[in-house]
Amino acid sequence: MSFAAGHAVGDLACAQVEHGIMVEAEPDLQAALARTAELVAVADRPIFEATFEHEGVLVRVDILVPEHAPTGVTWHIYEVKSSGSAKAYHIGDLATQYWVIANCGVAIASAAIRHIDTSFVLESPGAYTGIFNDASLLSDISGIAATREAMVKEIRQMLAGDEPVCATGPHCRAPFACEFSAYCSGLEPAGPEWPISELPNTGARLAEKWADDDIFEIAELPEDAGLNPLHARIKEAVRTGEVYLNTEGVRKATADWAYPRIWLDFETIAFAIPRWVGTSPYGQVPFQFSAHVEQADGNLDHIEALELSGQDPRDTIAEALAGLPDSGAVIAWNAGFERRCLRLLAQDVPRHRDALLSLAERTVDLLPVAKNNYYHRDQRGSFSIKAVLPTLLPELDYGDLQVADGGDAQLAYIEATDPDCPEGRRAELAADLIAYCERDTLAMVEIYRKLAGG
Q1: Among candidates 306, 308, 315, which has minimal Cα distance to 347?
Q2: pLDDT grade, residue 177 (50/70/90)?
Q3: How far apart are CA 256 and CA 329, in angstroms?
């Protein structure tokens, strides 16, 4: 999905530059290099995917714009990114482009990351002027570019030698996951069964700290390690293999959750380029919800709504939500997300404002209840619903579902709302989405019942 979003953002950025000409990578990159040289020599139009090579390093520049002055032609580099700001790793990429292009004899006037402005609001269909911001970085990259020649020499020496030995670590995951991580991990000795890094929030830092003392297992942490209460509970569960469950704490924390209880979950879509008037880049727009409405006697009714027409789903979803009971607790897992969705819908669909704000005000969170009163070591430090559920109710695991997580749901939505999606396939995707979202809310009900001793 992020790959497709990047392409869409790049296409829009090019569309906003008048009279630009694309340098195609076909039939081969040598042809692209030659075509770029021709266009730079003429210097009468912006160039998209301008291709340069120096010392065996090849770059393709998203947008290269000429500027004519009495002293000659200079060029402005724009590297387009789908993120909401210029990231640290973007600077290194831009520095490499600058180094290559400058060494090809091209005079550079500026270099910038052209990124999405997340404060942009679509005011009318197709009106995307102003969706980009430029982060000018020429002064930031000149010093980095000066190191590239030495770096290229080092890389060549590495490639000519034996396979390098490099321990895995955080660098394998940032800024992106390395595709060779599994290979490298397979070369290393087996790690700890219950590594300290699995402790929530600060586990990675604790692992680094205790590695100096050759302590790698959670259970080996000393009594005076200064663990917080949560980490101490996790350590005890790992050490003994026993489940921690404070049923009385669960009941006390939820005693004022009034009936009818509404167990609620949303699925949302967030486009880099907003599709609907009133939405912003990466703004979460609900296209589906599931609600299990529980009465005091334990009876459950399932209510759901799903909008796959491709039109703005907010009105449909808001209207269905407004039909939920106007009293009782609204329960979600990590409830800040559901509360935020409800408040935004109240703002965007004002005719249902009161009902939606009422739901938001009544929303409570099951996650901290579980976090404070339950732990099974197979959670591996995670309190996501998908980590907790298999330890309590393995028969409700998501393994039997075609849509098994939020990422799958977003991909299913994109496929189903494609105008070229066959009707039969759209019906399959709708059924898969309904089954997934329903599982989320039913899972909350059954997790709560287990934790409360019901």
Answers
A1: 315
A2: confident
A3: 9
What Cα–Cα distance (Å) separates residue 221 from each residue in 192, 218, 372, 377? 13, 6, 21, 16
φ, ψ of residue 12 in degrees (nearest 5): -65, -40
Contacting residues for 318 by C-beta, under 8 A, at least 6 apart: 345, 346, 348, 349, 352, 356
- Residue 241 to residue 376: CA distance in whole angstroms: 8
Q: Is 292 in contact with 263 (CB distance < 8 Å)?
A: yes
Q: Which amino acid is at 215?
A: I
What amino acid is encoded at 428 in this protein?
E
CA 268 vs CA 112, 306, 308, 406, 410: distances in Å: 32, 11, 12, 8, 7
Maximum Cα–Cα distance across the chain: 84
pLDDT digits (tens, 9 = 90+) for 125-150: 999 999 999 999 999 998 999 999 99
The C-alpha atoms of residue 278 and residue 344 are separated, in whole angstroms, by: 11
Long-range contact set of residues 87-91: C-beta below 8 Å, sequence gap at least 24: 87/175, 88/175, 89/175, 91/137, 91/140, 91/141, 91/144
Q: What's the order of all strands across the beta sheet hosting 363-365?
A: 300-306, 285-294, 261-269, 330-332, 363-365
Q: How many CB atoms lie within 10 A of CB 43?
A: 16
Mean of the per-residue pLDDT values of the chain:
95
Q: Give the pLDDT confidence of 62-105 residue by residue, as tens digits.
A: 999 999 988 899 999 999 999 999 999 999 999 999 999 999 99
Q: How far apart are CA 452 and CA 454, in angstroms?
A: 6
Report the Cα–Cα distance between both ends of the chain, in Å, rounded: 41
Determine if residue 278 is left, alpha or beta; phi over 0 gives left, psi from -120 to 50 gives alpha, anything else beta. Answer: left
Query: What residues have CB less than 8 Å from 240, skipping those under 6 apart?
Result: none
Q: What is the dihedral of CA 395, 400, 406, 411, to 10 degrees?
A: -170
For 163, the 3-state DSSP assignment is coil
Indicate whether 247 pLDDT > 70: yes
**Residue 111 · residue 141 · CB < 8 Å:** yes
Return the amino acid letter for 236: E
